[in-house]
């Protein structure tokens, strides 16, 4: 959970979303996981103040997506850089269910390293879900 971060709930009326990636592939994306003592303190505090039921729900969601391994990172990468995740990763997230996918990513974008994108990713999260669910037949 230490690499998780927040976004706002998707707006049903959101259209004209910029297709430019929020982060460039390569070095710019790779530096997102750098943790300073201050950012680590922020992340720990953010996790501590979450309601216990919510934390348990998200942990259960993450368990449903196991063994997700690097797929979670690849999903974040698709959200931020428009680089599509593999069919195998899509299968793992679709098996967990849409609500689990949404809530897990919502939490991911509350972490310090990704919170600056929180207001911009709700549409992309739904877009990734829609693409994966259309691509994968359970």
Model description:
- By secondary structure, the protein is mainly alpha-helical.
- 54% of the residues lie in helices and 0% in strands.
- The protein contains seven helices and no strands.
- The chain has helices at 27-30, 37-48, 52-64, 71-81, 87-96, 98-108, 122-135.
- Helix 5 packs across helix 7.
- The longest helix is centred in the C-terminal third of the chain and has 14 residues, at 122-135.
- The two termini are 27 Å apart.
Summarize the structure.
By secondary structure, the protein is an all-alpha fold.
Structural topology:
Blueprint: H1 27-30, H2 37-48, H3 52-64, H4 71-81, H5 87-96, H6 98-108, H7 122-135
Jot down its keywords.
138 residues; globular; disordered N terminus; 7 helices; single chain; mainly alpha
The number of helical segments is 7
How confident overall, as mean pLDDT?
Answer: 77
Q: Which percent range describes the beta-strand content?
A: under 5%
In total, the number of strands is: 0
Q: State the shape.
A: globular
Distance between the termini: 27 Å
**Low-pLDDT runs:** 1-16
The portion of residues assigned to helices is 40-55%
- Helix-and-strand structural type: mainly alpha
H/E series, N to C? HHHHHHH
- Major β-sheet, in short? none
Radius of gyration: 14 Å
